[in-house]
Amino acid sequence: MIGRLNHVAIATNDIKKATAIYRDVLGGKVSGEVPQPDHGVTTVFVDLGNTKIELLEPLGENSPIANFLKKNPNGGMHHVCYEVQDIHAAVAKMKAEGATITGTGEPRIGAHGKPVVFLHPKDFVGTLVELEQV
Ligand code: CO
Questions:
Q1: How many CB atoms lie within 10 A of CB 103?
Q2: At the fourth CATH level, which superfamily is domain 5-133?
Q3: 130 is a catalytic site residue
């Protein structure tokens, strides 16, 4: 079911510093900062050719990454995103497998304008998993 690794998301309290590390220390190809108020984050992408790193900084009051950063004040890997061909088929399979989909359990439009769901880390080796229809 899962296809390519679309991105690995890294949460940070300081996206300018994180961007500088990826651009200047690691020599990565970084995008500009994109505030995404609907998603409670500001994003910067690092284009790796075969996949991306997504840097996330909390934006606004109820950011979905606020709790993670409370537990990980230095930042850290927040989720991995795998591509799927059909998000509704993927959701049906996850429900049949007994996996927990976060939120309403229904796909919503993610930070890249495509339908996504998030799968609870307890079912996936301690890692929050995003499935994105491509
Ligand atoms: Co993501």
A1: 10
A2: 2,3-Dihydroxybiphenyl 1,2-Dioxygenase, domain 1 (3.10.180.10)
A3: yes
